[in-house]
Design brief:
The complex is a heterodimer of chains A (932) and B (241).
Chain A lengths: L21 H13 L6 H17 L3 H11 L11 H7 L10 H16 L6 H12 L7 H14 L10 H9 L3 H14 L2 H15 L4 H17 L1 H5 L2 H8 L4 H15 L3 H14 L4 H18 L6 H9 L5 H13 L5 H15 L4 H14 L4 H5 L2 H7 L5 H14 L5 H9 L7 H17 L4 H13 L4 H17 L4 H12 L5 H14 L7 H13 L2 H17 L4 H11 L5 H16 L2 H9 L6 H13 L16 H16 L9 H10 L12 E2 L3 E2 L7 E9 L3 E10 L4 E12 L4 E6 L1 E4 L5 E8 L10 E13 L12 E6 L3 E3 L5 E3 L5 H8 L5 E7 L5 H12 L2 E2 L12 E10 L3 E11 L3 E9 L2 H11 L1
Antiparallel strand pairs in A: 1-3, 2-3, 3-4, 4-8, 5-7, 5-9, 6-8, 9-10, 9-11, 12-15, 13-17, 14-15, 15-16, 16-17
Chain B lengths: L2 H9 L4 E8 L5 H8 L15 E7 L4 E7 L18 E7 L6 H12 L2 H4 L5 E6 L9 H7 L10 E5 L8 H43 L12 H17 L1
Parallel strand pairs in B: 1-3, 1-4, 4-5, 5-6
Antiparallel strand pairs in B: 2-3
Helix pairs in contact in B: 6-7
Classes of the chains: A alpha+beta (932), B alpha/beta (241).
The structure holds guanosine-5'-triphosphate and magnesium ion.
Magnesium ion (MG) binds next to helix 2 of chain B.
Subcellular location (chain A): Cytoplasm; Golgi apparatus membrane; Cytoplasmic vesicle, COPI-coated vesicle membrane
Membrane topology (chain A): Peripheral membrane protein
Protein name (chain A): Coatomer subunit gamma
Chain lengths: 932, 241
């Protein structure tokens, strides 16, 4: 078996504006394709095709081809390669005279192995690489080009690859045109910022070379270098500009790509560039497509109205001669956020026309786009219904699937049955990827026609039984789960299907996810006992991760259902004999908790679990072991997990704990915690309690752009001001934001940003102390002024003047509200948590919300005002109801749980009865005071 | 064409020699190699080499493949990757750079003590380059400073050169052909003698077979002739081993 090395996902390239360089990515693409990863089949095929083409370019493949034809099997000539044997063979590179044919063959083998993900150690890779460098003696063209490929593949695994720099510069400036382009690409792969200066002159010449392949290679390579050495590549703008007026369509396209990437952070420059090119017109349809994408991105960012010249440009492209450009324009328009029907009409009619094109690619593109926007613009898409109906029987199954699913999304309830029947007739013939599209359509449909859920559920369970990959199965499971959550009456059928599925499920992630769901929902069904069997089967049959998840699920049944408790305890007893540590630990833990028979314990340790940030916990524990102390470890010192993460974590926790701890990516807040801890002024503030979403303190298009993130600690707050200077003739220094509080908040310290050059964001901080004598003072308004030293500078070189002057800039006011003191915490079982906190400090009050018209609106307002986590999906108000109960959970600064139950009734405005519970009386008062 | 040359052609062996061109940076290695190339292949501007580059040129009897290495400090440790296949070394010294003569000596000593070089009779040609510079040392002085007289087990030669005009280069290359040809001819004579033995051996095979003891008629033909063949066989075996 070949060991796989993790590879970056390069396919993204194809979907964004920078999709230029196929060459570099192709090798990797091919390997990813072989690994059967989940990319769009188009990209995958393209990648595979590219690589195979290149292999075919080398004559020796022919031999194998013949053999294949004879044997009639599509077997792979490189299938059984052994790395060590190949490296042994590579010794012949050192022989003179060189035998190009044999060397070629061996290089192909090496590249093949690399693309298979075979791991090469540094020493062996370097040895092979240096042996390969000798092949530059040979003038065999094919061999030389294979060397370029090898250099690119080995650039990151061999040492001292710069040894070939001079050889490549020689080829790049030489007389052989076939060498020049590939040599440039290889050269840029082995060059770093310091070396780039040495080849800069050649790059500039190559960009404006009259041979298109040379110019294109140089442009594309420059594009790659931008990421690494922006400042050097920036100096090549004039050359790129010249290339952009090339007659060759590829060169023009690549030049435009480079120009755009050099300027993309400077909106004004991008606008200017767009103006210029849209006026002068371009030859290359590829460049046109890119212009359209740039224009629509800009429109999106600036929220430009549709009377903008950019929109006019995109619309004018609908009348372009080239179909690709026309499609790109139509697709851009239908994807725009708020398009009126009138603006949409010409784009949709173009797509409609494409639906009946004889070219499959155009039909596919059109129907895929319609499918994507079907939910957003149902009426526009319905206009194409007739054409879509015709495509249902298209011989291309992908087109047919997309057509049917589009119709499903927009069709009436009555057509659902017919379409579902149609699609069942060939669902087994289409690829996983399109099956996922079908599942997504069903999911959308269920939201629209909840009454149809039984038809859908049936269909989904059949699909679940069929063969299919992970992505496909996951889509189905997600869809079933969302149906269960939306329609309580479908819960039992849904759970039954999922139970059946995990009886034979090879995907650990899905099995644990379903077990988690069973633990949550199962105990609350009328007949909880029937799930126990399915869950316990997992303990007997599955891998550790699944067994651990099953144990947790079992415990939840025991905690909730008293009559099941004895049998659950017996089962847990058996789990305590498991061979895996994690499974045994969990069983022992749950066993002991359950035996106490205390509701509060069950709630805290079985239903609702820990709500701390896992990386944070790890760090705190590590810290605790480093500084041993008499005091027991205090869970309150651990930063809390932000709510959405809690939810995810519980789902993946079983996998993570047993096998892949590194999978726990630190959350946004963990990152802030780290950054703030690195600033000496903020030592000793304790763990970071909460970080707010960024608040804009300036308008979008101003000289300076400032946004603020509020970080709350136990007794302090830190305001982080992220500032960007958008003036290219100024350098700001000693930047700080002065704050004047309206209440008894005390500004302790300012931490200025030392320097703020043009367009490079920087942060300054303000530390304030919260008033500790009045715990109810939770809200405050600050007036903010940015103060700094200005040094004028040359916009071209960035060279600042010697002296500067002080200046200030008034920002918008910043509000601190009660929400900044509360961290969202999801309580999966709110009732249990409510009982656990108890009614010692319970308070209740009734309010009338006169200005609110609907329950939905009231719910939304309360949630955003208190900044607490809605539980039990109570943030969704069922239709046609005039009363509702909202459950909110959170932790108040200082570590006290706080729970809110709000009963809402709709009658001429909304009346709200709020009940608050917490372990601390002050907290209850604060909440009620701020609601009133 | 001499006999050996003809034989070489007949055997399909071409007189290709791999040469390593070493020396400190800025000593003029690339300029020298460029000068030796045919005039239509010469380039105008020469920049410091990064890594190495492969150049080719021919003389009347040999065809050279030169590995022009970079002399900058951080690349010098990469030279050794190419020592194994070098059949000759051109070592270039900037004779006007007195300050770094010790560095050049150090590099030379490291080279001579390298396991891939130490035990081989590999010819070394020294170019005391930039002799046109006003304060350039003479080739004698250079060879003293580098202690070249200590090199006993390898053929070597030093000549003063000016890479800009080409002065002195031809002399050096002419010298290089000598040891290389000897080297080459030795190889050929070894091959041809081995070949001759083989021919002899083959020509004797019928005899051996005929008079060997396993022959059914062997007892009938024992006699002086038999002994002579036996002796010849022994002679042959001794010769071959
Ligand atoms: N006056 C004079 N200048 C020379 C002579 N030979 C070379 N130069 C100059 O010396 C400089 C360096 O020459 P290169 O050939 O690049 O030196 P190198 O040894 O290849 O240097 P690296 O590639 O860095 O190892 C160039 O500017 C040459 O013009 C010479 O004989 N006389
Ligand atoms: Mg050089």
């Amino acid at each position: 078996m070949v060991r796989k090395r993790p590879l970056p996902l390069l396919t993204r390239k194809y979907s964004d504006v920078s999709s230029v360089d196929v060459d570099v990515a192709t090798g990797r693409q091919f390997s990813l394709w072989l690994r059967g990863s989940s990319f769009s089949s188009v990209a995958r095929l393209r990648a595979a095709f590219g690589f195979i083409c290149r292999l075919y370019a080398f004559k020796m493949i022919k031999k194998f081809d013949k053999k294949d034809e004879e044997s009639g099997s599509g077997s792979n000539p490189f299938q059984h390669l052994e790395k060590s044997a190949v490296l042994q063979e590579a010794r012949i590179f050192n022989e003179t005279p060189i035998n190009p044919r044999r060397c070629l063959h061996i290089l192909t083998k090496i590249i093949y192995l690399l693309n298979q993900g075979e791991h090469f150690g540094t020493t062996e890779a370097t040895e092979a690489f240096f042996a390969m460098t000798r092949l530059f003696q040979s003038n065999d063209q094919t061999l030389r080009r294979m060397c370029y490929l090898t250099i690119k593949e080995m650039a990151n695994i061999s040492e001292d690859v710069i040894i070939v720099t001079s050889s490549l510069t020689k080829d790049m400036t030489g007389k052989e045109d076939v060498y020049r382009g590939p040599a440039i690409r290889a050269l840029c792969r082995i060059t770093d910022t310091t070396m780039l200066q040495a080849i800069e002159r050649y790059m500039k010449q190559a960009i404006v070379d009259k041979v298109p392949s040379v110019s294109s290679s140089a442009l594309v390579s420059s594009l790659h270098m931008v990421k690494m050495s922006y400042d050097v590549v920036k100096r090549w703008v004039n050359e790129a500009q010249e290339a952009a007026s090339s007659d060759n369509i590829m060169v023009q396209y690549h030049a435009l790509g480079l120009l755009y990437h050099l300027r993309k952070n400077d909106r004004l420059a991008v606008t200017k560039m767009l103006n210029k090119f849209t006026k002068s017109g371009l030859k290359s349809p590829f460049a046109y497509c890119m212009l359209i994408r740039i224009a629509s991105k800009l429109l999106d960012e600036t929220e430009g109205g549709h009377d903008s010249p950019l929109f006019d440009f995109i619309e004018s492209c609908l009348r372009n001669k080239n179909e690709m450009v026309v499609y790109e324009a139509a697709s851009a328009i239908v994807h725009m956020p708020n398009c009126t029907a009138r603006e949409l009409a010409p784009a949709v009619s173009v797509l409609q026309l494409f639906c009946s094109s004889p070219k499959a690619a155009l039909r596919y593109a059109a129907v895929r786009t319609l499918n994507k926007v079907a939910m957003k613009h149902p009426s526009a898409v319905t206009a194409c219904n007739l054409d879509l109906e015709n495509l249902i029987t298209d011989s291309n199954r992908s087109i047919a699937t997309l057509a049917i699913t589009t119709l499903l999304k927009t069709g009436s309830e009555s057509s659902v049955d017919r379409l579902m029947k149609q699609i069942s007739s060939f669902v087994s013939e289409i690829s996983d990827e399109f099956k996922v599209v079908v599942v997504q359509a069903i999911s959308a449909l269920c939201q629209k026609y909840p009454r149809k859920h039984s038809v859908m559920m049936n269909f989904l369970s059949n699909m679940l039984r069929d063969d299919g990959g992970f992505e496909y199965k996951r889509a189905i499971v997600d869809c079933i789960i969302s149906i269960i959550e939306e329609n309580p009456e479908s819960k039992e059928t849904g759970l039954a299907h999922l139970c059946e599925f995990i009886e034979d499920c090879e995907h650990t992630v899905l099995a644990t996810k379903i077990l988690h769901l069973l633990g949550k929902e199962g105990p609350r069904t009328p007949q909880p006992s029937k799930y126990i069997r399915f869950i316990f089967n997992r303990v007997v049959l599955e891998s550790e991760a699944v067994r651990a998840a099953a144990v947790s699920a079992l415990a939840k049944f025991g905690a909730q259902n008293d009559d099941l408790l004895p049998s659950v305890l017996v089962l847990l007893q058996r789990c305590m004999m498991d061979s895996d540590d994690e499974v045994r630990d969990r069983a022992t833990f749950y066993m002991n908790v359950l035996q106490q028979k205390q509701k509060a314990l069950n709630a805290a340790y079985i239903f609702n679990g820990l709500s701390v940030s896992i990386p944070g916990l790890e760090k705190s524990l590590h810290q605790y072991t480093l500084e041993p102390s008499e005091k027991p470890f205090d869970m309150k010192t651990v930063p809390l997990a932000t709510a959405p993460i809690t939810e995810q974590k519980t789902e993946i926790a079983p996998v993570a704990t047993s096998k892949l701890p590194e999978k726990l990516a630190p959350s946004r807040q963990d990152i802030y915690q780290e950054q703030l801890a690195a600033i000496p002024e903020f030592q000793g503030l304790g763990p970071l309690f909460k970080s707010s979403e960024p608040v804009q303190l300036t308008e979008a298009e101003t000289e300076y752009v400032v946004r603020c993130i509020k970080h709350t600690f136990a007794g302090h707050m830190v305001f982080q001001f992220d500032c960007t200077n958008t003036l290219n003739d100024q350098l700001l220094q000693k930047v700080l934001v002065q704050m004047e509080p309206s209440e008894a908040y005390e500004v302790v310290q300012y931490v200025p940003a030392p320097s703020l050059p043009y367009s490079q964001p920087g942060s300054c901080y303000t530390l304030i102390r919260l008033p500790d004598d009045d715990p109810t003072a939770v809200s405050c308004t600050f007036s903010c002024t940015m103060k700094y030293l200005v040094r004028d500078c040359d916009p071209n070189t960035g060279e600042p003047d010697d002296d500067g002057y002080d200046d200030e800039y008034v920002l918008e006011d910043l509000e601190v509200t009660v929400a900044d003191h509360i961290q969202k915490v999801l309580k999966p079982n709110f009732g249990a948590a409510w009982d656990e906190v108890g009614d010692e400090f319970e308070k209740e009050e009734t309010f009338a919300l006169a200005s609110v018209r609907t329950l939905d609106e009231a719910v939304g307002n309360i949630i955003s005002f208190l900044g607490m986590q809605p539980c039990e999906r109570s943030d969704k108000v069922p239709e046609n109801k005039n009363s509702h109960v909202l459950f909110l959970a959170g932790v108040f600064r200082g570590g006290h749980d706080v729970l809110v139950r709000a009963r809402l009734a709709l009658a001429d405005g909304v009346t709200m009865q709020v009940t608050v519970r917490s372990g601390d009386e002050n907290v209850v008062d604060v909440i009620l005071a701020s609601v009133g | 064409m001499g006999l050996f040359d003809k034989l070489a052609a007949w055997l399909g062996l071409k007189k290709e020699v791999n040469v390593l061109c070493l020396g400190l940076d800025n000593s003029g290695k690339t300029t020298i190699i460029n000068r030796l190339k045919p005039s239509n292949a010469q380039v105008q501007d020469i920049v410091p080499t990064i890594g190495f580059s492969i150049e080719k040129f021919k003389t009347s009897s040999l065809s050279f493949t030169v590995f022009d290495m970079s002399g900058q400090g951080r690349y010098r440790n990469l030279w050794e990757h190419y020592y194994k296949e070098g059949q000759a070394i051109i070592f270039v010294i900037d004779s006007a750079d007195k300050l770094r003569m010790v560095v050049a000596k150090e590099e030379l000593d490291t080279l001579l003590n390298h396991p891939d070089i130490k035990h081989r009779r590999i010819p070394i040609l020294f170019f005391a380059n930039k002799m046109d510079m006003r304060d350039a040392l003479t080739s004698v002085k250079v060879s003293q400073l580098l202690c070249l007289e200590n090199i006993k087990d390898k053929p070597w030669h030093i000549c003063a050169t000016n890479a800009l005009t080409g002065d002195g280069l031809q002399e050096g290359v002419d010298w290089l052909q000598g040891p290389l040809r000897i080297h080459f001819n030795l190889l050929l004579s070894y091959i041809s003698s081995a070949l001759a033995n083989l021919l002899l051996f083959v020509s004797l095979i019928p005899n051996i077979f005929m008079y060997s003891t396993v022959s059914p008629f062997s007892s009938l033909h024992r006699g002086p002739f038999h002994c002579r063949v036996k002796r010849k066989q022994q002679q042959l075996l001794r010769y071959c081993s």
